[in-house]
Amino acid sequence: MTSATDSPSPAAIRLIATDLDGTLLRDDKTVSDRTVAALAAAEKAGIEVFFVTGRPARWMDVVSDHVHGHGLAICANGAAVADLHAGGELVKVRPLERLIALDVVQSLRAAAPGTTFAVELATGIHYEPDYPPFHLDPCASIAVAEKLLHEEAPGTGVPVLKLLAHHAELTPDDFLALARTTAGARASFTRSSPTALLEISGPGVSKASTLELCCAERGISPAEVVAFGDMPNDVEMLSWAGTSYAMGNAHPAALAAATGRTATNGEDGVAVVIERIVAERLAADAGR
């Protein structure tokens, strides 16, 4: 595993993909001045920056001022691409089919009694009565998951971006392993919370697969991408990118998936690497 001081060839890098919570953002959910400057320097050097997060588009205000050029962000673990220049408008959606979500709900209720659910729609989140409440979403409706997922006719409802499953007693990794064993063939399971909170997307939907689509549209190969992350929901992206860095505070699965390791999010680990890439790019350009 390489360190933050071992950067890829600066001429080869065309896109930086970074997670937010626990990665780009500090623990107080802010973007440091150093990181803001590093992001701007990358864009000025001709390197595109994509925010790739489990957050829904409506929670992207924290970084919307720091999106340059294209203005796009990959949200909800790859289930949506949002245009932050247009107030978070969704320009691409990769939904979880409601019948699949209902099947997953039934399977997890049987395998892990006490599981509670929330449904992240393209228009907002709704959750069951015993699910930990979302204080950032006071307009959310509350009902059992089967009712939240019901639609009068197939295809008539708002797209489901994610199904969330919470368990009060299981450990996070044990819950994830159980869910993948129980229903992993029907949906994509991951997690990014320190609690036993699973994030469930459509089959094949992940940060990596949507990032791959966005890169293909731009003619960018994995070898031209540098990625940053810290949790299990970053593993596929860290594995897909030609060069990737797990944060110093990363989960063991993220550390194992990445090609390198940088400082913690509190130490501006993303900025540390970007600064070096940009400096080497400028030096290479000056030497031509």
TrEMBL record:
Coiled coil: none annotated. It comes from the Bacteria. This is Hydrolase. InterPro entries: Cof, HAD-like_sf, HAD_sf. The keyword Hydrolase applies. Gene3D superfamilies: 3.30.1240.10, HAD superfamily/HAD-like. GO terms for molecular function: hydrolase activity. Keywords: Hydrolase. It comes from Streptomyces gelaticus. Pfam families: Hydrolase_3.
